[in-house]
Amino acid sequence: MDFQDLVSMVVWTVSGAVLLSLLMFADSLFTRYNDMEELRSGNMAVTTRFVLKLLAQGYILASSIHASNGLVEALVVSVVSFILLIVLEKTVHLLLARWGHLNLDHGTQLGKIGYGLVSGSLHVTGALIIAAFIR
User: Fold this and answer.
1) How many C-beta atoms lie closer than 10 Å to residue 111's C-beta?
2) How far apart are CA 102 and CA 73, in angstroms?
3) Alpha carbons within 13 A on the beta-carbon side of 19
4) Which of 64, 88, 89, 120 yields a CA-CA distance of 20 to 30 A from 31?
């Protein structure tokens, strides 16, 4: 590994961290509760969902970095993937609310860990599917 590789690694890592922070902030705008407030208060369901979403986004970013020809391309793929994951999550939330009378956002806010696991696992599953297309 030469000096240019080290510099590239730093640039890609910092860019990825900034993007992940922005995406997680944007995601918090789509929930009916304040993620940071719930995390600080010790809500393990919100924490579980948050960690699974971060893992999913990190996996997609890692896959896009591995497969892309440049930084901008990798970041764009991650943003598009984030949008797909939001659409997937909202669609499944709507279907579960209508057909299963299961409100994942409300249950997660109440601290029901199972609700947070289901909600977060939607992102992990979506990330695995999306990453298969990236490679």
Assistant:
1) 16
2) 38
3) 25
4) 64
Structure tokens at 71: 């930084």
On whether the CB atoms of residues 89 and 130 are closer than 8 A, the answer is no
Per residue in 41-60, is it b (16+ CB within 10 Å) or e — as a string? Answer: eebebbbbbbebbbebbebb
Residue 18 Cα distances to 61, 79, 96, angstroms: 12, 12, 33
CB atoms within 10 A of CB 122: 23
**84 exposure class (CB count in 10 Å sphere: 0-12, 13-18, 19+):** middle
